[in-house]
Design a protein that fits this description.
Blueprint lengths: L1 H13 L6 E4 L4 E5 L6 E2 L6 H7 L23 E9 L1 H4 L3 E6 L2 E2 L2 E5 L2 E6 L6 E4 L7 E9 L2 H12 L37 E2 L3 E6 L2 E13 L3 E12 L3 E9 L2 E9 L2 E12 L15 E9 L2 E10 L4 E4 L2 E2 L2 E2 L2 E4 L2 E3 L1 E6 L11 H13 L4 E4 L8 H10 L2 E5 L11 H18 L5 E5 L4 H7 L2 H4 L4 H26 L4 E3 L5 E2 L10 E3 L12 H4 L4 E4 L8 H7 L10 H5 L7 H12 L6 H25 L6 E4 L22 H9 L3 E8 L2 E8 L5 E11 L4 E11 L3 E9 H5 L7 E9 L2 E9 L14 E7 L2 E7 L4 E8 L6 E2 L4 E3 L5 E6 L4 H7 E4 L1 H4 L6
Parallel strand pairs: 25-26, 25-33, 26-27, 27-28, 28-29, 30-31, 31-32
Antiparallel strand pairs: 1-12, 2-3, 2-4, 4-10, 5-9, 5-12, 6-11, 7-8, 7-10, 13-14, 14-17, 15-16, 15-18, 18-19, 20-23, 21-22, 23-24, 34-35, 35-38, 36-37, 36-39, 39-40, 41-42, 42-46, 43-45, 43-47, 44-46
Length: 849
């Protein structure tokens, strides 16, 4: 009977009589340069750049070296307009508003020629009451976007201060004055395109009597018997009266009758969920989400409703002194969980081009890569709702930075007021998500204050420096901290990441760390194994995308890393291509041609980053997180990403998938011993078989051992150790490999190859890889085999840039068949003709025999 009543109630709520209506103003948009009277069609959401591109008024911003020639766009003012119809029935509603969910950035908004809004913050939506200005029939909305450069230049001149915004790719850094995505002004992995436009939708809203502005479904307590929650409803009341407020979920209903007065107010409705099923991060359990409907009724009329999904779980961060320094451990449902993931940047310089399909692919890639956390980095944007919905669904915890990175900021009253509004808007928008793990004030500002030499480098006076430091504390130590306490109490907040500095040995014992000794410090990859912090929240190494992607921005005349176009798509000016070449020369022979160079750059990145990933996991519980830099790209070019701009997996992403496997076998040489670790992320013990073989490059077995092991829950431990000399017994270390694998019920759960020497020291055979192509019920399967070791086998379908292999850049062991599936639009017969197979020995200019 109870379920029947609930079903009837939900059915009634599904057909509201006077519910709020939301109409997106999507069509009929036009735009123009304000110094020209030529109106052209526009796409909204969109940007000026993409609208100009659609009309072929500018070349593709990502091709060739077009970036510099398009810098005029941000110096101009631009205007958008649209007409929309309002019916007499709509005008009968008690209230109508225009909801601007994303204006980029300095915008004057006119409705029927009346100024209704002066927007100054890209990150904060604005809703404006407009009923008195609307008329039946045609209405016109006009939005004037001021040039961000022209708008902020007076602030720079008045401040008489050059802020240390080193990533701002302009002689006069203005990015710090704008509450706008910092990366738009340039970064060391992306171009400078300072956009303007309506980047998120505009809605016309109409409602009667009461508007349900927000519903915060806060978890108060949780145990195996019951979850106690509170629905805090923010209501904009047009007509005072008694209303029925409901919370309906899968296991029950809570309802109260409440007398509301005119104006904005918050009403709390406690509710419970019996026998709660927990939400778990990816790899540890299911991502159980409960559907919850919140509604406002009067009589039989449903005036307002909101539908949400919530997950029941506890997430805390243990950041406290201990015997080894200062911990940084994410606790989920009472368990310490090693965080495996990445740093995320915006997926395009022109944000409205990121489609729902791209978001879905992104999170499918994260899940396939065995992530359980993604850091939304502070130089980008607060992502859209779909991003966090997918994080909830896929079990990816979100480390959420506020949008501040790598510089000091103003602290005047107007700036702080904008930040306060931005913070409140986004905290309220995101706080219901099960995936939201923590808030961080900024990226690298605190560590920069102490270690980057800003005071002397920018010649700040003592008074200027003291004022800037005071402003820093006001912004990150007080304002943002207090906004989190007010709007999302209980969620962990800390002012700046990292807590510790990579340049000092003692800092590896305290909190999170961004280790850039490899790359910026030009230390070799082996340093990753010795520089292990309590939580590694940034580390990385660059590579180039593959030939499919390079073709999209550079023709064959530019296929040289010193060419004009290749240099234009390398934004790490201080290291860049020279660093890649230096590391490549250290670990590898010279590549035979340009495609081989691209391939080697990816192998170099992957093998180096594998060293760090496995070192972090072996070191648990001392180290409890590994978030590499970076997941994705905002344009095509050289970068630290594992997945390029077009969604193609680089070698590193395949290595990440294996290194983040919930069960990992990892071998390392420690002094004179060779030790094999098993890392078990599961919350249960695992009974496994550890299989080890030392072979030469032709597959002859020189030593082998099988031993049953028990990998204890949520631990890393050495399961086997042997003296190096006892293992090799005089064998040439450049001609042998140690292959280890973990089996359960004869199924390989994890395997790994340990090399005793760098690739350039090994006489890698130029062996031929045999490939059998099969059509298996529409899926193309490849079976590969070689009589000798083929290291870092790379599979490429030249005729299908969107193809994706289940494995790639892998080591093909002598005599062992490896099966790979490929997602492709090609038939098996076409795959057979077009498949290219590369491996290290074939990529070198001089083959080692």
């Amino acid at each position: 009977m109870r379920n029947l009543l609930k079903s009837l109630l939900l059915a009634a709520l599904a057909t509201p009589a006077f519910a709020q209506t939301n109409s997106e103003l999507k069509g009929n948009w036009e735009f123009r340069r304000t110094d020209e009277n030529i109106w052209r069609t526009a796409t909204v959401p969109g940007t000026v750049h993409t609208d100009l591109l659609a009309h072929r008024l500018i070349p593709d911003p990502f091709q060739g070296a077009n970036e510099k020639g398009l810098q005029w766009i941000d110096k101009k003012d631009w205007e958008y307009r649209c007409s929309f119809d309002v019916t007499g029935a709509q005008l009968q509603h008690d209230a109508l508003s225009l909801d601007f969910t994303g204006l980029d950035t300095y915008a004057d908004v006119y409705l029927n020629d009346a100024l209704i809004l002066k927007a100054v913050n890209m990150f904060a939506g604005k809703e404006v009451a407009v009923k008195p200005l609307l008329k039946a029939g045609k209405n016109q909305l006009r939005i004037l976007f001021h040039s961000p450069v022209a708008y902020d230049m007076p602030k720079f001149l008045e401040s008489r201060l050059v802020y240390p915004a080193g990533n701002d790719a302009s002689d006069i850094p203005l990015s710090i004055f704008a509450r706008k995505a910092p990366y738009h002004y340039g970064w060391d992995w992306g171009p400078r395109y300072v956009t303007s436009g309506i980047w998120r939708p505009v809605y016309l809203k109409a409602w009667n009597k009461v508007q349900l502005a927000d519903s915060w479904l806060r978890q108060e307590s949780l145990n195996s018997e019951q979850a106690n929650l509170n629905a805090a409803l923010t209501l904009n009341v047009q007509e005072a009266g008694t209303y029925r407020l409901l919370v309906v979920h899968e296991k029950g209903t809570a309802a109260i009758n409440h007398t509301l007065t005119a104006g904005t107010q918050t009403v709390n409705i406690p509710f419970t969920i019996r026998k709660p099923e927990l939400w778990w991060p990816n790899g540890l359990g299911a991502q159980r989400l409960y559907n919850v409907t919140v509604a406002v009724m009067q009589g039989k009329d449903t005036l307002q409703k909101q539908e949400q999904r919530i997950g029941l779980r506890t997430v805390t961060v243990k950041n406290e002194k201990d015997a080894q320094g200062t911990s940084f451990t994410v606790m989920v449902n009472g368990h310490p969980v090693f965080m495996k993931g990445t740093n995320y940047i915006p997926s395009d310089n022109f944000l409205p081009r990121v489609t729902p399909e791209r978001y879905r692919k992104m999170f499918a890639d994260m899940q396939e890569s065995n992530f359980n956390m993604v850091r939304v980095w502070g130089g980008g944007i607060y992502e859209n709702d779909q991003f966090y919905d997918l994080a909830d669904e896929k079990g990816i915890l979100v480390w959420q930075d506020f949008m501040f990175a790598c510089t000091l900021y103003p602290s005047d009253t107007a700036f702080l007021r904008q930040v306060k509004e931005e913070a409140a808007y986004n905290i309220r928008r995101l706080r219901n998500h099960a995936s939201l793990a923590l808030w961080c004030g900024n990226n690298e500002v605190a560590v920069a204050i102490k270690n980057w030499g800003w005071k002397d480098g920018y010649a700040y006076s003592d008074a200027q420096w003291a004022s800037m430091l005071k402003g820093y504390e006001t912004l990150f130590g007080e304002l943002l901290r207090d906004e989190v306490k007010t709007h999302d109490p209980g969620r962990f907040y800390f002012p700046s990441s990292p807590i510790s500095n990579w340049g000092r040995k003692e800092d590896f014992s305290h909190g999170d760390n961004h280790y850039w000794g490899v790359w910026h410090g030009m230390e070799w990859f082996e340093a990753f194994a010795t520089h292990v912090p309590r939580f590694m929240s940034e580390y990385g190494f660059q590579s180039f995308p593959d030939i499919h992607t390079v073709r999209r921005y550079a023709d064959s005349s530019q296929w040289d890393i010193h060419s004009f176009v290749m240099q234009a798509h390398q934004k790490s000016f201080t290291r860049g291509n020279a660093a890649i070449k230096t590391y490549m020369d250290h670990y590898h022979h010279q590549p035979k041609d340009f495609p081989a160079f691209l391939y080697l750059s990816q192998v170099l990145q992957a093998e180096g980053m594998k060293t760090g990933m496995e070192a972090h996991r072996r070191a648990m519980p001392f180290c409890m997180g590994s978030l590499y830099w970076q997941f994705n790209d905002c344009w095509p070019g050289a970068s630290w990403s594992g997945i390029d701009y077009f969604g193609r997996w680089k070698a590193m992403q395949y290595f990440v998938k294996k290194a983040y496997n919930p069960l990992l076998v990892s071998t390392v040489q420690d002094g004179g011993s060779v030790s094999t670790y098993i890392v078990n992320d599961h919350l249960r013990n695992e009974s496994l078989l550890l299989d080890m073989q030392l072979t030469d490059l032709d597959g002859r077995v020189l030593w082998e051992k099988q031993t049953p092991v028990t990998a204890k829950a949520n631990t890393s431990a050495v399961q086997h150790s042997i003296r190096r000399d006892a293992l090799l017994k005089g064998a040439d270390s450049t001609r042998v490999i140690l292959y280890t694998k973990l089996l359960k019920n004869n199924k390989v759960l994890s395997d790994n190859v340990f090399y005793f020497a760098a690739s350039r020291q090994m006489p890698l055979p130029a062996t031929e890889v045999g490939v059998t192509v099969e059509d298996n019920k529409g899926a193309v399967t490849l079976k590969l085999k070689s009589s000798q070791l083929a290291r870092n086998v790379y599979l490429l379908l030249d005729g299908d840039a969107d193809s994706h292999f289940s494995d790639n850049y892998f080591d093909l062991l002598p005599g062992r068949e490896t099966t790979v599936t490929v997602q492709t639009k090609l038939t098996a017969e076409e795959v057979k003709k077009q498949l290219q197979v590369q491996h290290l020995a074939l990529a070198y200019k001089v083959e080692k025999q």
